[in-house]
Design a protein that fits this description.
By secondary structure, this protein is mainly α. The chain folds into two domains: about 50 residues, no CATH class; about 110 residues. Helices cover about 75% and strands about 0% of the residues. It is built from nine helices and no strands. It is elongated, with a radius of gyration of 26 Å. About 5% of the residues have low confidence.
Length: about 180
């Protein structure tokens, strides 16, 4: 199968970038730095299909940004709320019909408690993902700031070497490198 990426001579670069970047980030880098003039930009799906066809499906870094970007905390909270409202209304109707059957009321109570417990876990999960989302946004902002510094440091190789040497000696080097 012929791929547009190969026709453009970008296959090796795409696969190399994909080892550390998401498909969307690879598309951005390629479109910004390597795409021949007049060519249509590559999108993340094109990158994804190309990489999958070449056996590269996982990113080697611990980055949940893409998963987090698809999570909408407010939407999820409304979903949980709507589920609870439906459950409460349904329980009300059932309880009205079963006023005198204590055995069935007990069963329904157990089921309802289990359901509400699950909803509480879902709400806690939503809160955790929201915190992760906030942290990832902060990391993305720091990454952009560091990119600006690195671009400026590229103009001064000696200063850049000194900065990186200082960072290597720092106990924060691994943290900075992960960003």
């Amino acid at each position: 199968m012929k791929y547009r990426i190969d026709e453009l001579g970008l296959g090796k670069k795409v696969l190399e970038l994909r080892k550390t970047l998401t498909c969307e980030e690879v598309a951005d880098v390629i479109n910004r730095e390597s795409l021949p003039a007049g060519e249509q930009p590559l999108n993340k799906m094109t990158i994804s299909r190309y990489c999958a066809a070449h056996g590269l499906t996982d990113v080697g870094r611990n980055d949940v940004a893409t998963a987090v970007n698809r999570f909408n905390a407010l939407s999820e909270a409304w979903s949980v709320r709507n589920r609870l409202v439906r459950h409460t209304n349904k329980l009300g109707r059932i309880l009205d019909n079963l006023k005198d059957d204590e055995e069935k009321l007990s069963e329904i109570s157990s089921i309802s408690n289990a359901y509400l417990h699950s909803c509480k876990f879902l709400e806690d999960l939503n809160e955790s993902v929201s915190r992760i989302q906030k942290e990832q946004l902060g990391v993305q902002k720091v990454r952009k700031v560091l990119e600006v510094f690195l671009k400026i440091l590229d103009r001064y190789p000696q200063v850049k070497a000194e900065v990186f040497e200082e960072l290597r000696r720092s106990d924060m080097f691994e943290t900075i490198r992960a960003i």
